[in-house]
Amino acid sequence: MPQSITEEILQITEALLTASPEPLTQARLNQCLQLNDISLPEVIATLEQRFQEQQRPVNIVPVAGGYQLVTRAEYQPYLQRLFRKAGKLTLTRAALETLAVVAYRQPVTRMEIDQIRGVNSVSVLRALLEKELVTVKGRDEGMGRPLLYGTTAVFLQTFGLNRLSDLPKLKEIGEIMDEAEVATPAEYATE
User: Fold this and answer.
1) For residue 3, what pLDDT is reported?
2) So what's the pLDDT on residue 33?
């Protein structure tokens, strides 16, 4: 017998729709709720009715065998202005490597970055400075008094961090990488 749609299920489903960059499917909902007797189309119909009654600025639309939360068309000009101003940040592999070295070793000199990466990082550092992800924190006391680099508040905001201590530990990164190697496409075929 199917389970009734509770307020908790509605709220969980709305949270999943809000957070997911991909369409929410029945299989994915079942996996998240750890239940198999909730009908996603029924939950979506209930949420959509609620959104209409509350005049919410979003709709739920069927996409690629699932559902996605989208902003209503009348808000499109405002979103365009938001994203035009914010732009999309793209970083090369070299920029990501350099940024990781700076984030984990700061304050760090260019020579230290070059030694870790094994290549010259002048142009990459310049690009990161222009994007305001890295800043000059001062000068080292060593020979030639080289500049010391560190991350900025823009870096924290861009990567969704509250403070530098929120960066994943190197051990955690290793575990994530190990898990990624174990995962196979067959595991995702049921979604």
Assistant:
1) 62
2) 85
Looking at residue 171, what is its pLDDT? 80
Outline where the chain has alpha helix (H). 7-19, 26-33, 40-53, 76-86, 93-105, 110-117, 122-130, 153-158, 170-182
- Residue 111 pLDDT class (50, 70, 90 cuts): very high
* Percent helix, percent strand, percent coil in the chain, to nearest 5: 55, 15, 30
Q: How far apart are CA 2 and CA 37, in angstroms?
A: 5
The average pLDDT across 46-58 equals 92
What token pair was written down for 170? Answer: 């190197």
Nearest to 10 by CA among 57, 60, 61, 55: 60
Q: How many residues does the chain have?
A: 191
Domain final position from 48, 76, 104: 76
Are 104 and 61 part of one and the same domain? no
Per-residue tokens: 95: 């920029």
- Inside any domain, residue 186: no
**Where do we find the tokens 């924190």?**
137
Q: What is the mean pLDDT of the chain?
A: 84
Q: Please, how many CA atoms are within 13 Å of residue 29, restricted to the half-sphere of its CB?
A: 26
